[in-house]
Amino acid sequence: MPQLNPHPWFFIMVISWFTYSMIIQPKLLSFITANPPSNKMYTIPNTTPWTWPWT
C-alpha cells in the first residue's frame, strides 16, 4: 500500500508548513484590520423576568 510510505508525503508536509510559517503567515499578520476593536463599555440591559401564565 503506497499511502503508508511516509517518504514523499512527509517532505511535502514539512515544506508546506515551512512555507506557511515563514512566508505566508507574516504577510497575513501584517494587515491592519478595517474594524479595530473599541474600548466601549457595554451596559447590562435591565430585564424583568417573564411571568408564565401556567405556573
From TrEMBL:
Any Gene Ontology biological process: proton motive force-driven ATP synthesis
Subcellular location as annotated: Mitochondrion membrane
Annotated TM spans: 6-24
Protein name from the UniProt record: ATP synthase complex subunit 8
One of the Pfam families matching this protein, by short name: ATP-synt_8
UniProt keyword list: ATP synthesis, CF(0), Hydrogen ion transport, Ion transport, Membrane, Mitochondrion, Transmembrane, Transmembrane helix, Transport
Gene: ATP8
Its membrane topology: Single-pass membrane protein
Top-rank lineage group of the source organism: Eukaryota
GO terms assigned for molecular function: proton transmembrane transporter activity
